[in-house]
Amino acid sequence: MGVSTVKPCSKILLSCKYSSFLGFPKCPNSLFTNLPLCRPNPPHNPGRSGHRPLVALSIRQAIPSPNLNWGQSRVFSGHCRLGRDRGISVISNAASDLRRQLSSTVESHSGEKSFERIYVQGLNVKPLVVEKEGNSGLDGRGIDVSVENSKGLGEENAGLGQKRELSEMEKEAWRLMRNAVVNYCGSPVGTVAANDPIDKVPLNYDQVFIRDFVPSALAFLLNGESEIVRNFLLHTLQLQSWEKTVDCYSPGQGLMPASFKVRTVPLDGTNETFEEVLDPDFGESAIGRVAPVDSGLWWIILLRAYGKITVTDGSCMIDRRMGIHGHPLEIQALFYSALRCSREMIIDNDGSRNLVRAINNRLSALSFHIREYYWVDMKKINEIYRYKTEEYSHDAINKFNIYPEQIPAWLVEWVPDEGGYLIGNLQPAHMDFRFFSLGNIWAVASSLATPRQAQNILSLIEAKWDDLIGEMPLKICYPALEYEEWRIITGSDPKNTPWSYHNGGSWPTLLWQFTLACIKMGRPELARKALEVAEKRLSNDRWPEYYDTRTGRFIGKQSRLVQTWTIAGYLTSKMFLENPEMASILTCEEDLQLLEGCACALTKGGRKKCSRHAARSQVLV
């Protein structure tokens, strides 16, 4: 029975014995056209090369288009069996024929020696070229090709040609992150969110989260190991949502899951034969039933980083009530970065020019809007303080009718004379003046902020070091919601009490993104200083998920220990600082062409052209 005759359920269980996407080798739109059938393999280290399958990857699958019908494009030669948890498991009746067909495809390329034998079709990823004096043993990606990585992950940074001995803390971090690796059909596909052996009630921390895996993926990539990242990208792409997730509500096409878990289920209802399935969660099991909006954006950013290192030819983090509804900065920054990454990977031809033009228009409008209206410093705050309200005019200064009384008392004394930041949110008659670290840091890394604004953001972090770094980097937001404001906005959330968790908690995993921004702006000393603060406690505290109190002095009251993205964030920060040229796999430089045209076309109908030239002048100063 083909999938075109039944709608998949919200949870798609990809079978290990015969994966649902493998029964369709002739589909022109199939990402896995040449991927062999999944079969159990002996355990091996992520990234260790052997004879690998040939994968044809199209950017059309990486960025689903509205007219691409995934459900109807999959017609299986086998039959669909409704598995446990409403999932679908496909067992092909023509498995032997398909195996022979795919095996011949792989064998025909078994003699090729290209890196990992991955061929990306339709992607235009510029390889990362690293030149170091006196380092003839490095190839174009900065990978040490003169020394065989025979010690395994974590014992030596062979992937980046490092010869120094790792510290005991780094060795411990690598060991813990290795223990967190999840295997599917004998191959690594991700890392669990937390892996504390003492914790008997892991809730969903034993799953692979899309956002949590990003620092782990970067650590593996920077260490010269890419297989686990490749498997993660391919399998999560295949887990995109097709059907409703919560009651009668349907997400947008191509929604990535928040997380997934490898489950072992009986085959054909017996307890003698078992198969592994991937069970995704699109938010229908999450606290508050929040949809993972940021997962797909992180996926694109990671795809670009993976492509730069390996291809040589070619809900957001705050997911509980915190008053961030509307247009939160974090989503705007990730969306901007995802668009920049997508545009870079699309081949410029007649078929893609309309798409590239649409991306450029969106980038142009988004960058102008954030730079012009989200930015605050002492000068801007004083301007808002003197705003007139209820203006009705094309030339209105107070375009969003912001009331000066909204300026919080803490802000006037907190913002330094030298420095500024992008506010957390902007809506008509409402500005969220809280400082959100991830959104500001990623605005620096992606060049959503102007160079001047980016420098001022780092200057503010330096000036307010005790508030934002304290005894453990990095505050997720500042300040915390307290008293009546906390009760109204969070609903008296017992996990988001003041200066805890998402409400002003300190999250060590943000360290790698802070390091990225510091390197991009030529201020690595700030990242080293923050790293030294973290190294005093992380290992002794058993790598907590987050810290509480105003300065981050206590381990979070509900913080999981041996948290994988805390470990990975630390390792990635260390490797970025030792190899700063590798930061370019994630950062984007300023694109002045985006500021040339006005996407909003305000010149029509006699209306005044917008002040885009003013934003461009800020860049050139």
TrEMBL record:
Annotated source species: Persea americana (Avocado)
Name used for this protein in its record: Uncharacterized protein
Domain of life: Eukaryota
